[in-house]
Design goal:
Elements lengths: L1 H21 L1 H8 L7 E5 L4 H12 L4 E6 L2 H11 L7 E5 L6 H14 L7 E4 L14 H29 L2 E6 L12 H20 L5 E6 L3 E3 L1 H7 L4 H7 L4 E3 H14 L3 E2 L2 H10 L9 H30 L4
Parallel strand pairs: 1-2, 1-4, 2-3, 4-5, 5-6, 6-9, 7-8
Helix pairs in contact: 3-10, 5-6, 6-7, 11-12
Bound molecules: NADPH dihydro-nicotinamide-adenine-dinucleotide phosphate (NDP) and 3-Dehydrosphinganine (VSD).
The site of NADPH dihydro-nicotinamide-adenine-dinucleotide phosphate has 31 residues, from α3, β2, α6, β7 and α8.
């Protein structure tokens, strides 16, 4: 008798799991309804984190996506990879986001027009360049390029998308910073500054948008396995590499996934792993509160995270002092 009950229970659980799995295509769109057919602009969407964001948004959330990046050949390849059947749900436009504001504005207008005059529901400012070099090795031109693309690019795209978001009465703006936007790191004098700048931008912006039902998210990924990182590693000082290893390397897939979740929830900070969590507590400063649980952790862990970072800084400074040359 008991054996029968146990076998029956196992059978019921197995059938439930099978149904749960088989019915995924039907119930998933119900949960993801809020992104289905919405218009998401991903800057720097032709490579790495941006490409993965575009892929997930298109294929897992049913969104309409516009990718902005410069290199036309890379955009064409990306289009082939993401939509081999040439769907009109993906638009790839060549524009330098850190170039002229008029060009960016024009690209955003074109994007809205292409997607049936849908305003931009979510803007993900992800385009970025990074050269890991000390201040002596970084050229003035590289400093300027990083400020233009990493900072001004985000300002221009945000400014161009805001009027239509305001008109719609809702929206999300994501700024892809980095853990190097939360603490200064050897070899990132130019890069860190542009990533710190995004937090200042985000805090002021969120205050200005308080009445508009538009939420700002800042993402702080650690090293992420992308073509950009492979390029960066070619010139990365050993010191920078050793410091970055503290937080390990993530896949672009993991990084993109949490950016999408955080943007949907309207969380102000998007962090990764235990180091990311502790850094987010340590650097929460005067940022807006979007989760009571996070606020509780920030208050309770303030002293402890400061002690942890001072301990770590000692080891980072030891690495920096050992430099020979
Ligand atoms: N990979 C990592 O370790 C980490 C990355 N980040 C940040 O994540 C973002 C993406 O990084 P990742 O995926 O590695 O980068 P990749 O180098 O792999 O890709 C960068 C993308 O940005 C585009 N881009 C660069 N400059 C411009 C520009 N002026 N106008 C428009 N598009 C531009 C590139 O296309 P094109 O050159 O054709 O314009 C490309 O599509 C960056 O902001 C980076 O700082 C944060 C933490 C860690
Ligand atoms: C109390 C808190 C403890 C937390 C530990 C902090 C560890 C610091 C590690 C710094 C990692 C910086 C990665 C930058 C990645 C990046 O942006 C480049 N790859 C360029 O793209």
């Amino acid at each position: 008798m008991w054996l029968l009950v146990v076998l029956l229970s196992i059978f019921i659980v197995a059938v439930a799991f099978l149904l749960f799995y088989l019915l995924r295509p039907i119930y998933r769109p119900l949960f993801l309804r809020d992104l289905y057919d919405s218009h998401v602009v991903v800057t720097g969407g032709s490579s790495g984190i941006g490409k993965e964001l575009a892929r997930q948004l298109l294929h897992e959330h049913g969104a309409r996506v516009t990718i902005l990046a410069r290199n036309q050949q890379r955009l064409d390849e990306c289009r082939q990879d993401l939509t081999p059947n040439d769907s009109d749900r993906l638009l790839c436009l060549s524009v330098d986001v850190g170039g002229s504001y008029a060009d960016v504005q024009n690209a955003i207008e074109q994007a809205c027009h292409h997607h049936g005059n849908r305003p931009v529901n979510i803007l993900i400012n992800n385009a970025g360049v990074f050269y890991a070099k000390t201040i002596d090795e970084t050229t003035p031109d590289e400093f300027e390029q990083m400020v233009r693309i990493n900072y001004l690019g985000a300002v221009y795209c945000t400014k161009a998308c805001l009027p239509s978001m305001r008109h719609l009465g809702s929206g999300r703006i994501v700024l892809v910073s980095s853990q190097a936007g939360q603490l200064g790191v050897f070899g990132y004098t130019s890069y860190c500054a542009t990533k710190f700048a995004l937090k200042g931008l985000a805090e002021s912006l969120q205050m200005e948008l308080a009445r508009d039902n538009i939420y700002v998210t800042v993402a702080y990924p650690p090293d992420t396995d992308t073509p950009g990182l492979i390029e960066e590693n070619k010139t990365k000082p050993r010191e920078t590499q050793l410091i970055n290893e503290t937080s390990g390397v993530l896949s672009a897939d993991e990084v993109a996934k949490k950016i999408i979740v955080s943007a949907r929830q309207g969380s102000f900070a998007c962090w990764y792993g235990i180091n990311g969590f502790l850094l987010a507590c340590l650097t929460s400063g005067a940022q807006p509160v979007t989760s009571v649980l996070e606020l509780t952790c920030q208050c309770l862990l303030a002293g402890l995270t400061r002690l942890i970072i001072v301990r770590l800084l000692n080891s980072f400074y030891a690495i920096a002092r050992r430099r020979t040359m």
